[in-house]
């Protein structure tokens, strides 16, 4: 897309929403990527007493307040999943399957990534391991593929891949009803290790193994250093300074993704700081043209 946004915000938890609201108040052209169904970490909280002004409130009620605030400001959450973000010098390129969004600055508020990569995942990334099934599916036309799904959205990608691959093995990490094509084989087992030399050869499970040429791991979010090449990370958290700046110029981060404590109020404050500094960065650039 040729449209250039001032600020692209990736993540719609408390940090991302706070960043979006504060950037919009300052008349910046923004786009917010995330999920309209806010994190279960928030919505399932039975009682919240430490949020100023909203004591003795449930997580669901607080989440509804967040969404109401966005609606009053005409801020829409785009449910498109960002697969990669590239620093292009004068702008950032945000890739969504075969589409591209452009923004002068980026705020990462993707939340914390729980759990470690599978054994062999990092080593075979780009050599049979991928995080976007709809992007890379044509590479596996007529070949066997495994998809490890972490949410319902992964089912859509699995259905698409099944139109091209010789067979799709779907390994769900969640419970529920699965809306999958009849030609997809559901395997309810625990993935342990990805095996291969120069290319993926098989996926080792707790109770067996499957021979595949490609494995797509569709988590709720991607590890920051894989999402943004060149980003400095320390123990799964993005390194930032007090202005929420990362090591990449024009890129900021806020919320759980930058470290503990994992608290709503801390995340919202950081979202505001990130937005205000992104705005100042943009204004300075405009004045120095």
UniProtKB/TrEMBL annotation:
| UniProt keyword annotations, A-Z | Flavoprotein, Oxidoreductase
Q: Does the keyword Cell inner membrane apply?
A: no
**Where is the FAD/NAD(P)-binding domain positioned along the sequence?**
5-271
What's a Pfam family this protein contains? Pyr_redox_2
Q: Name one GO molecular function term.
A: oxidoreductase activity
Q: Please give the superkingdom of this protein's source.
A: Bacteria
Please name the SUPFAM superfamilies in this protein's record.
Answer: FAD/NAD(P)-binding domain
Write down what this protein is called: FAD-dependent pyridine nucleotide-disulphide oxidoreductase
- What organism is the protein native to? Clostridium cellulovorans (strain ATCC 35296 / DSM 3052 / OCM 3 / 743B)
